Each structure stands twice: as structure tokens, then as C-alpha cells.
Amino acid sequence: MSDESNPHEFGEADFRSTVHSFEFWFEAVEGYLHGRPYGVSAATKEAELTERQRQALITTLCNYCVGETAALDASSGMIGFAPDRHAKIFLATQVVDEGRHLEVLLHRMAQLGVAAPEAEIEKRANRSLLKFKDRLLEFVDARDWEASIFAQNVILECLEFTVFRHHAGTADPVTAEMLRGIVSDERRHMGFGENDLGRRLIAAPHTHDRLYKIKRELDTLVLDTFSEALGELGVPHAERPDLEGDYLAAVARLGFRS
Ligand SMILES: [Fe+2]
Ligand SMILES: [Fe+2]
Fold first, then answer.
1. Out of 2.40.440.10, 1.20.120.520, 3.40.50.300, 1.10.620.20, which CATH number does the structure's domain 10-36+61-253 have?
2. Ligand 1 geometric centre to CA of 124 (Å)
3. If you measure from the C-alpha of residue 178 to the centroid of ligand 2, how many angstroms do you get, rounded to a whole number?
4. Cα-Cα-Cα-Cα dihedral of 115, 120, 121, 123, to 10°?
5. Best CA proximity match to 157, nearest among 149, 166, 147
6. What is the separation of C-alpha 85 from the centre of its chain, rounded to a whole number of angstroms?
7. How far is the CA of 97 from the centre of ligand 2 (A)?
8. Per-domain boundaries in the chain
9. How far is the CA of 53 from the centre of ligand 1 (A)?
10. Ligand 2 centroid to 83 CA: how many Å?
11. How far is ligand 1, taken at its centre, from the CA of residue 179, in Å?
């Protein structure tokens, strides 16, 4: 191993055994979890929210819970058919991350006065996002590694990365700090998908066509999710952030163009 501090200088085998390890994971999360119970430091103060803002935030958090639960269910299921042991170890770290994300989101909802989060999620969940979740879990049930890793670690992670980053820029300080911690994890999950599929695409170029077909189907659900969510929040068309453009750019950066 050439340099223990810089994973980019590792050879392929060393890269995988190092990055796909709890050691690496712990170093990565320690910086932003230490001293931040539920992802937020004590010094960060609550801002006053209007009732309309509070309701909109609760709806948004309910949808984040749908996405995080999908990732928790999918990543834990994928351990059973991951192609090798390093991938299993990485997925185990991802399961812990997604469980933590769900926990901090539920905690935030409780702070906002939500007494029955399950019922609230049921009531407020976005239909396109629920369809996306079903599709992802179908790939997992079929033990289809390429489709599962693509749908979860590329598409779903890019969706979450895009939305959380935008939202962190406009949210109240407590929600913003919580989201910034989550984004750091999602970046790591995207890196895993990019690395795994990158190697697979070199080894089996015909995989491209299959993944592009899945991409076309899932992109539609992702884009519907954005417009449904922004519509529910009452954001006028002219003021809507370009989530679609940012999402497609994030997927393209991982090597999957439209
Ligand atoms: Fe997550
Ligand atoms: Fe994730």
C-alpha cells in the first residue's frame, strides 16, 4: 500500500479492501457525528417556523423517510447476494448509515410535534417515490445485483444527494445541519455504486444497454417525484430549483448519461 492516508493512491485490490471497511467508515463519520446527537450540535438553535412552513417540512421529512427506508431495506437485502465479501462489508456500513438517517429524520419529526410518524408517512408519501421504492425492492427480491446497485447506489443516491443539498441551502438551521451530515454519507454510497458498476461495465459492455433501459424507467419516477413534491409544497414554477437538471448532471458525473 503506497499511502495509507490517500485512498486514491491505492491499487484496485487495496482500494477495495480499505474503502470497503469499517475502519474507513468510522474515520469518515466520526468527524461529523462526534458531539452531534441526532446529527445536530447543541449550539444550533431552532428558528421560529410558521404553521405552513412546519407542515411543509413535515411532508418533506415524511418523503425523506420513504427514501431512507427504501435504502435501508434494499441495502440490507443486498448483503445476501453481494458478489464478494468486501461488497458485503461495505453494504453493512451502508445499512448502519441508512438506519441512522431514518433515526435522525424521525427524531426531527418528533421535534416538530409529529406524534404518530408511521401514520403521517402513510398519509403524506409521494406516489412516484413509493413506486420507485417498489421497483427497487423488486430488483432486490430478484437478487439482481447490477439492477439493484444501479437503482439504489446510483439513482436513489443521486436523487437524495440532489434534494438534500438543495434543501440544506434553504432549510432552518437544525434541519440544514442534519441534512449536511446525511449528504456526506450519500456521497460515499454513490462512490461505491460508481466504482462497482464502473468495473462491471468495463468487464461486460453489454450491461450498458440493460442499465440504460432501467435508467429511462426510473428517471421518469424520479422526475415525477420532484414535480409532485414541489407542487405539494406550493412552490411556484418560476421559483422551483432545477432539481431535474442537477439530478441528471449527478447521474451523468457517475458515468451514466441520458
Ligand atoms: Fe440515506
Ligand atoms: Fe444512502
1. 1.10.620.20
2. 19
3. 14
4. 170
5. 149
6. 23
7. 7
8. 10-36+61-253
9. 23
10. 19
11. 10
- The C-alpha cell of 94 is what? 451502508
Average pLDDT over residues 198-223: 88
The end-to-end CA distance of the chain, in Å, is: 37
Q: pLDDT tens for residues 124-181? A: 999 999 999 999 999 999 999 999 999 999 999 999 999 999 899 889 999 999 999 9
Question: Can you read off the three cell numbers belonging to residue 155?
Answer: 439513482
Give the pTM: 0.89
Q: Which residues of 40-70 are buried (b: 16+ CB within 10 A; e: fewer)?
A: beeebeeeeeeeeeeebbbbbbbbbbbbbbb
